[in-house]
Amino acid sequence: MGGPKLPEQERADAILAAAYRIALTEGLDAVTARRVATAAGISPGLVFFHFQSKDGLLQALLDVLLNGTLDALTHPSLSALAPWDRLERMIRVELDRLVEYHAGVELLFAFYFSRPDDLFRTRIEASFGRYLEAFLPVCQEVAGPGGVSGASTGVGGVSGDDLASTVVALIHGASIQAIRNPASVYPDALLATVLALRPRPAERP
Amino acid sequence: MGGPKLPEQERADAILAAAYRIALTEGLDAVTARRVATAAGISPGLVFFHFQSKDGLLQALLDVLLNGTLDALTHPSLSALAPWDRLERMIRVELDRLVEYHAGVELLFAFYFSRPDDLFRTRIEASFGRYLEAFLPVCQEVAGPGGVSGASTGVGGVSGDDLASTVVALIHGASIQAIRNPASVYPDALLATVLALRPRPAERP
DNA sequence: CCCTACATTGATCACCGGGTCAATAGGCCG
DNA sequence: CGGCCTATTGACCCGGTGATCAATGTAGGG
Predict the structure, then answer these.
(1) pLDDT tens, position by position, B19-35
(2) In chain A, whose CA is at the least distance from the CA of B190?
(3) CA of B147 to C1' of C15 (A)
């Protein structure tokens, strides 16, 4: 019985990787200590040695999932663009990411809805909150002080806050669509609707 | 041991009601044969007598959840309105329903993400599909043959299909927002963005 | 009034999940 | 080399779950 063959702390990472693999392919419910251990080629007890409980393992897995989620939106290359172009770029980047990593997104939702308590939800909701905050500045810039008049609505129009929450709702909705059928997501269709709000770009001859 | 006290076929309904109550308050995982039986005041065996398996019970529960989901959108009172007004009304009705029944919506998502297999997904996706179909006609009417020009985008604009998928995505996104925090859903904000696409309503003095 | 059909019970089974733990194997430091 | 600390093992316990089943009670038809 037992001795360190990989004494390195990579063990935890290896376990997490195995858990991740199982969660992606067989669902969150399939992530059990025994199965993870088997997939990682170790003994079940080790799982509880490195993570104290199953919830510990799942929380660690969730952290892996959430890290790197927000990177693309704060990429410095965006700040050079004009507001509307930046917003368009951000949305497009997000939609593309959603389609590419739809399996991960699905897993994230599986985490969220797996239990009604706050164990996972607070983290995920915090992440969603940061999501909105990432979009707020651009949307406010785009809307201006009076809101987007859209050159069409009679009165005033859409404030920056409205636009931001709309954009986030749109992306979340697209997530679900991407999970159902990744191939059915057409970023151009969704973008067209948002960009229709843009005032005519000052004659570009 | 045992004899019919409620020989009526309401038994199945009573069991379903108990399961529904448990699912809403304690989550899908809490729906076990014993707990449901206890909540319904019957013996565990009865659950398997009326529904053959746990999956049978869950499928029946899902059916309960899906029925009545689409009623509001096909309400005949809508057909009298002008296209844009009808679209606005439909979206508003849906958003209100989402907020009111957010617990049910949450349960629906819990069903969807509870397992990667097709046991629940096909039904739910079919329901989503009908959802889109319910919005398609209005959106096509609103967009017209050339698409919504929005009076702002340079070229053409948004086709009816684009608009419909956008609207559905928006509503799905709002669902998630409603689950996180029902009080934070502002239908006006989301509607404002969509309605900004409407061409100026021909001077209404 | 019995007897058949059906609803109902509750005990019971096999199984699997999370979690614990004594035993042990390796590396490392003196 | 000898101890010591940590990683590791695998057997084990306990609780809960889905599912089965013989026994039993009730209703209703002849």
Answers:
(1) 999 999 999 999 999 99
(2) A166
(3) 60
